[in-house]
Amino acid sequence: MKSKFNIYCKYFLASGITAAAVSCSNTKFLKEGQMLYTGAEVKIENDTLPKKKKNELKAALEENLTPKPNSSFLGLRPKLYAYNVTKEPKKEKGLRYWLKYKFGEEPVLLGDVDREFNKDIIVNYSENKGYFNAKAKYDTVSKNKKARVIYTLNPGAQYLISNVNFVQDSSLVNREIQNLKEKTLLKAGNPFDLDVIKSERQRIDDGLKDKGFYYFNPDNIIVQADSTVSKDHKVEMIVKLKDNTPKLAREQFTIDKVVVFPNYNLRDAKKGLYKIPMNPDSLKGYEYNDIYVVDPKKKFKPRMFDRALYFDKGDIYNRKDHNLSLNRLISLGVFKFVKNEFVVSDSINHKFDAYYILTPRELQSLRLEALGRTNSANYAGSELNLNWTQRNFFRGAEQFKASVYGAFDVQIGGPADAENIFRAGANAQLSIPRIVAPFNFNSSSAFVPRTNIQIGYEFQNRTTLYTLNTFNASFGYQWKENVRKEHELKLIDVSLIDPANVTPKYEAKYPQNPYLERVVTPQLIFGPTYSYTYSTTMLPRKNTFYYKGMLDLAGNITGLVTGANVKEGKEKSIFGVPFSQYAKIENDLRFYHKFTEKTSFASRFIAGVALPYGNSEYIPFSRQFFVGGSNSIRAFRARTLGPGSYDPRPQQQNGGFVFDQAGDIKLELNAEYRANLYKFLNVAAFVDAGNIWLINDDLDENGVNTRPGGKFSKDFLSEVAVGAGVGLRLDFSILIMRLDLAMPLRVPYYEKSDRWVLDRINFGDSNWRKDNLILNIAIGYPF
Q1: What is the pLDDT of residue 768?
Q2: What CA dihedral angle connects 624, 628, 630 and 635, to 10 degrees?
Q3: In whole angstroms, what is the distance from residue 104 CA to residue 86 CA?
Q4: Which of 26-40, 284-298, 476-490, 504-518 has the highest mean pLDDT?
Q5: CA distances in angstroms from 297 to 262, 278, 284, 287, 432, listed in the order given
Q6: For the residues of 479-506, what is the DSSP string, one character each?
Q7: DSSP sequence for 229-254
Q8: Crossing angle of helices 78-85 and 2-25, rounded to 10°
Q9: Could you tell me which residues come within 8 angstroms of residue 385 by beta carbon, excluding any fewer than 6 positions away?
Q10: N or C: which end of the chain has fewer CB within 10 A?
Q11: Which residues form the signal peptide (predicted)?
Q12: Mean pLDDT, the chain, as a whole number?
């Protein structure tokens, strides 16, 4: 232990000496009279300003100063050093060019800093925040060819709003502005703030757009600050319409005609067809519920436009309906370009025509995909998919997708007798852009609700073990409230699993591993499923969230009606197959934090439980939880971890199968730091923790527990597996290739007092590396 400590001390001492040398060496490259600019600081002299407000002002001012000094890491400037020590490359390519001009940074010198300009920025920003008497000065501090600038601000008192006055007149637009003043952002007692003033002008414009003033603009509003009405640092805010506001901007417009061109393309535009403005009456179209559709070949049913468009003839223009209509047309999925224009048709009565110019996508596509893959369970394989898509199946933007596929996975080594796998199947899905139900369903969402119907079949053969025939079908709905919230309800989701060709080799393992028999037991699973997704990851924020909750209720009504109870010997069957009865819930919560545009932190927490009852003693194998592998706890191979503290090694030594470990309870926590090295090359450091557990013990026919330690208990925290590692991510835009190297830090099936394995780490031992360093190769991020 003492020798290790000495090694660490020497390492840190050497690191410190190297850091000091790199830090000092950057200045030796400077020419005579040059000084390296190391940054700026703003000091605020004001005894009456609260500390919190002073810190906010200081941070905002420093953010606006230019230029920024060379980037640093732990007090060092490695990018500047790389620039300095790298000789001038002869060509604009190669390692030397990359080090100097791509990775490296040119030195930022004191001579690059316009201190007067920065002083003006400080004063102007302060005035925009209500410090009308702000004064600033600067001083330069230099030492050892390094210089920093200290800016000192005396902001004076911050002016507050005394009252807000919306100037009235008799015009229609002014009356609408008066109706908007109750929700003004300008509040008496708040500080004067130019950004709030800009937001108030935009708020008024948004409100007027929803009242038919299509040609209005935020610049038509002027907000004046009068500081002469008070001597105690107060200002009166005066909001009024500019005198030079155009006449068109003062008028409230209504919709005259609604015209739809669903087959517009650039070739027609070049020929002079479909020019805007035009006279709709001269076009070869037809009218449907006050919508004029120009579709000579009748590729689309007009009813789909009636559902998507929220404008009717005679309606007052409303920007919410305007955007809603465009978004719903896009979400139909059949148009690649959607454009909208309004053309004045009656200037006296303030009417305009609404034109929707739609360019359809290719209505049919045929795609062949060939995939190669490998995973941490020592499988390598390939998959071939043939997909056909028809985006206008019944001329109402119904999307029909059909696919056939074949795949094989070959075991390329490893500790388990997992056998090779062959899969083949076909499925078809019809997605209808409305709710198909005996009742009316009206949605004001920007996203078109959909009815999804799906049917499929898969043939899976594990050579020398068994064959599974899986039939599935579902009917349900999918809808989004907004860009953040999405719902999916499957009223019926049916799966029939019919095993065949179970070999004696596999059957011989039943006595020791009764759960293996459940894998090849006929299963009938049906019932409703519901999932809810909430996500802010698409928003430009530093902190974003993702949540998905899923509820699966199988066989509940049928079990209740038939009085099924397997524990009392009342197991019920349908067509000779016992149906499954259980309730399952799963939650997936993710949090993302952006440090910069190129560095971030990502985390995920998964919690799930599946409870069998009534007609089922166990959860169907296909509906259980699994952990391990490239998208889970990466230090353990896929499906080999758990349940609980169950030790699979004796089973493995006896020729058992360890790649099918499943559980009824799942807890998992992942954390990952992500950074960019260069363009497409990203790195990550991660920690994963979690496990699965059983609701009931796995008992053989003699009542012996065949997976001891697998049941969930109060000691579950001591059975949580932990792994960590590093990864490379190659981001090629069209796909992300991920390489993650992980090792276990805590193994739940070791003795309870010996589960942390930090003292056993031995990178020099080839056997240790083989058993403990797990390489995961995958496509895309794990979460």
Answers
A1: 79
A2: 170
A3: 9
A4: 476-490
A5: 10, 21, 11, 15, 22
A6: EESSSSEEEEEEEEEEEEEEEE---HHH
A7: T-SSSEEEEEEEE-TT--TGGG---E
A8: 60
A9: 367, 368, 369, 371, 403, 404, 405
A10: N
A11: 1-20
A12: 88
Residue 25, burial from CB neighbour count under 10 angstroms (0-12, 13-18, 19+): middle
What the block records as the tokens of 634 is 């990466």
For residue 499, cis peptide bond before it (omega within 30 degrees of 0): no
- If you average pLDDT over residues 624-646, what whole number do you get? 91
* Digit-coded pLDDT (tens) for 432-488: 999 999 888 777 788 999 999 999 999 999 888 899 999 999 999 999 999 999 999
Q: How far apart are CA 308 and CA 300, in angstroms?
A: 13
Backbone angles phi, psi at 361, to 5 degrees: -75, 170
Q: Going by C-beta distance under 8 Å and a sequence separation of 6 or more, which residues neighbour residue 296? A: 284, 285
Residue 277 has pLDDT above 70, yes or no: no
Cα 407–Cα 408–Cα 412 angle in degrees, nearest 5: 150
> What CA–CA distance (Å, rounded) separates 671 from 675?
14
Please give the average per-residue pLDDT across 38-48, as a whole number. Answer: 92
Residue with tokens 């109706």: 179
C-alpha closest to that of 302 among 255, 361, 256, 358: 358
What pLDDT shows up at residue 14? 39
Q: Where are the alpha helices (DSSP H) in 131-287?
A: 172-180, 194-209, 266-270
Q: Which residues have a Cβ under 8 Å from the Cβ of 582 and sit 6 or more positions away?
A: 552, 554, 555, 610, 611, 612, 613, 616, 619, 620, 623
Pick from 71, 74, 65, 66: nearest CA to 83: 71
Distance separating alpha carbons of residues 153 and 192, to the nearest angstrom:
18
In whole angstroms, what is the distance from residue 265 CA to residue 268 CA? 6
Q: Mean pLDDT throughout 679-685? A: 91
Q: What is the pTM of this model?
A: 0.80
pLDDT over threshold 90, residue 375: no
625 close to 389: Cβ distance less than 8 angstroms: no
Nearest-angstrom CA–CA distance, 434 and 443? 10
Using DSSP, state whether 709 is helix, strand or coil. coil
CA–CA separation, 579 vs 562, rounded Å? 11
Q: What is the token pair recorded at 371?
A: 């995939």
C-alpha–C-alpha distance, residues 533 and 478, integer Å: 11
